[in-house]
């Protein structure tokens, strides 16, 4: 059955897996002190045009979010996020498990509006009772957002300025960054992100790795004794080579960007198919996630031939569903979908 | 200077303080195992008409909230509260410090609407991704709310039913319960609360004690090894007599209710004064907190003669301020205020 | 029944209680911003000869330990303590509840030997795997210790030097500091402690207050946003006057030291009585806690007329028990004990 | 350079890696709901002869320990371990990060003596102040231990009985279980472990997987909502297939046990070589870790040709070092070592 369920339905991109096979029998030191991890970090710094950055490799997205946030926040601080932010909804309270509040603000298509942030920060510091409240200690955004939408360079710049005027870091969750960077509608580059954010991560799991996320600390605020903090959150891989080799492969010969480009191409074709069939969009995104509205009868029938995911109820007779493309989506998948999809 | 700043501006009610003085030199066991603590607990159970209840005495409100919530929630659960709930705004992230999320829902004048709760619970369990989300594990309400408003018996009954249909406890924060119970507009009694809530606390600090809150577990879900859990949160008083003697006094000869009645009487007179002077209400509550709108010039002048508290900006020229009565408010205070307040 | 059970069997010292009564009806601001709290802090700084110190008032000892330790440690650090340290044994895991390990080292009569500490620190930094271990981030000692013993000025100086050579703070738990400072065998003064420790607390609960401990930060490492951190651990008193007034009284007219002196005088007489009766000491301390060995038959008989506390089994027929004096111990209590105690 | 540094110097066992390659392009559901994970769990239950067990796949050892322990302990409880236990020394305080104390008891060659445990438990419940202490809520042991030693069936049975008499679970850390089960000196089988322990894990990372540990809950005490608890600790793999496929391979055709057998065979030959060369053992273990004493000059020379790990200083001129074998150790490695090692 063809699947548009998400961007982690397949294993690793063949070029990534191949490197794991080729290096498998080498004797390497553990805990990320192997040469592949080193090489991966160097390549990432170069791609970010940020030679002073500190790069760390972790296993998964929620893990990365909780480690970055809990090691950078002070005791009295919480992290600001859009109400739809992954850390606020779909991480089962991982941030709170580390003792910190997610300060959820209203969103616009999954994005945190700089004006909303500005008002919140202004009101907070003007409140006489603020010592009894959670201090804003970081701003979390995701690029692309959970709705596949993108911040513009202008918006990112504004958010960055606001954060820096309050002396708090801006953190960007790049679980799907490959697809954001390669979107046809973006004006934001990886070096832009490295310049404007204090810390961000480059997602591997959703972009062709078996697992792995690369955190990039670009600023001067960096957690000290990071390895120990990672260890005590149960996140230190004994065989650090597993993420090292994979990110070394992803950042060799432009692979990470190729993966993004391919998925975007597939997403554009997918959008065209939906338009041709007259299927209404709930949110037509510039990245690899597309949200369409199906009537419930239609949806049930479709489900027998295609995998996609339920997003939310639209009304009593309609449902919002999500279709996702990735490096593993093929032209053939799209052709099959086109044949299966009903004309409306 | 006369003060309506809050309901904890004075020390203890004289009858409470007197008991501390009378018992001061008695040799008593520590950690709440003294006879006064025992007697206080028995009197509270009687007042609640709930002989099977378990009563525990703690020191402060935030402390009580964090202990009750963190000992009753399971690992995967969070606590639902109105967005304006004390635990969500003014406890500096105390609940999150224990590892749990506050699931904030929209409010109506500080109250959690049963319909809003019902929809939230329905949507949650219908969501296929709910294993990646924080489970609702408790509902927190305050009576009176942070805006001085009150749940009706009907609303409390609905909330209670909703909680029980989902097998989660209903927890009522009664920091100002004395004023809620004695409001002229309430149809809710202390036994009603004991019957409808699984756990609640009877606030002492804001009702005539130097410190102290009495938690009442009415249901079958009770934290085991409570003393140890209290100890490890740094909340166990060596001289447990301090809260024991005070609650014994508060629940002797109807004192707790008298304290509530007096403050309500003072609040009603306060409301009349505001009406006579033509000062607009932001929220005219049935309890001991009143919210009025002052123009900023007026406010600054008033501040030199009366203490009250800033609530929030109303518009560029006006401010919402709060006036609070308590057991220590006197007729004389009101007369002085009447003379000071400008005619509008 | 006469009682030597502990030093918190009675309420407050009459001079302390009296001040609570005298100030009871004053309208004061909450959360420690009242003038009595300010005055208490100033007096404490003066007594410590440390005008640059930051003094904070809290409610209880375990609470103080967990707040000081958790706000001063970094994420990757734990706190070193003697195996018998209060935080390691009798605080129900309060430090661990804040996420940090107690690194327990062997003790000598309740004391941490500077040589033991030196070896531990040396070994730790020499260990190649130390990034996988909890870093020593603070040294906790108690003065007097849980066994009533005292560090000498020389020992304190050595511990202080060791800490500073590793850039970690030295923290002294002074729950019973009054009795340590007034011991006939000590060469350590309050200013010595303020000079050698980075942070310590002056215990009120066990020295004549109803509750209250005064934390003194003497060094440059101080938790920022302390009020917010205190609030989120549920430890901020709404009526901050409760501790403010009490410490103001304790540090007026030498009262704190008088309380200590009286208890020490009583303890010396107690020791004489035990010696005269031929009752063997398990540990004859220079402070207000004395540990003697009773045979079990003797102990059971004695228990019917005197309160004291079980310490530990000595052998199958004997038990170590503890007798404690305090400000509330009277000459009369001692005379009665003398009459009751059997001749051995 | 030949390496005996540890048992995770190489990638995956070729048969394991091969399965990852073969299944790489299949579209599979995420988060462990794929058929390979299911199959792996079934095979593990069969190997344990425990059809009622619940098996869960996680990524690493520290992660597994913290998840199992923190989800099974109650609020007031800690976990008992030998002082040398991995959770007490080399997990950077991961257990404490979850809020729980490790109750460290003296060890014998890395093992927890049932007699030591019995005395501890007896003393704890006899202590009148135990409500102020951390309750023992679980016993943690490792098999093999951190010193490569093994519990006998008799010892395991005694520990199990002691735990069950106190109604607390026995948890066995099997990071290197393959080597324990295949030791020539053990009388303990996998079904024995499943019968005697309430929960244990079968280590993959140190036995031929790239990563992965399989937790087996055998008893009636099982954490509910385990997925959510795993998610909120950042430990849920999006591509659950990664561990599923690997454990499916490890428990196919006896591979897990073959891996253990091979490493044991290599370890026995290694021991012979050391004996022949007259190199003294610090601890000659029955499993895959061997501890020998080298003089420091010898050690430095050897280091240039062989990888091994520093264990601890023996005296000023000697050092304890560790040699480890694994599935990737070859006869050739041993021959080379034999040639390199000096005759003593």
Provide structural commentary.
Four copies of one chain form a homotetramer. By secondary structure, chain A is α/β, with parallel strands linked by helices. Chain A folds into two domains: 2-6 and 256-340, Aspartate Aminotransferase, domain 1; 14-254, Type I PLP-dependent aspartate aminotransferase-like (Major domain) (Aspartate Aminotransferase, domain 2), CATH 3.40.640. Helix content of chain A is 40%, strand content 19%. Chain A contains 14 helices and 13 strands. In chain A, helix 1 crosses helix 11 and helix 2 packs parallel to helix 11 (241-250). The mean pLDDT of chain A is 97. Chains A and D meet through helix 1, helix 3, helix 5 and helix 10 of A and helix 1, helix 3, helix 5 and helix 10 of D.
Largest sheet, spatial ordering of strands of chain A: 2-8-7-6-5-3-4
Please report the total strand number of chain A as a whole number.
13
Helical proportion of chain A?
Answer: 40-55%
| Poorly predicted sequence stretches spanning 5 or more consecutive residues of chain A | none
CATH superfamily of the largest domain in chain A: Type I PLP-dependent aspartate aminotransferase-like (Major domain)
| CATH top level assignment of the largest domain in chain A | Alpha Beta
Mean pLDDT of chain A: 97
SS-derived structural category of chain A: alpha/beta
Q: Report the sheet-strand fraction of chain A.
A: 15-25%
The CATH architecture of the largest domain in chain A would be 3-Layer(aba) Sandwich
Shape of chain A: globular
Largest interface: A-D, 55 and 55 residues
Question: What is the assembly state of the chains in this entry?
Answer: homotetramer
Give the C-alpha Rg of chain A: 21 Å
CATH fold name of the largest domain in chain A: Aspartate Aminotransferase, domain 2
Largest sheet of chain A: 7 strands, mixed
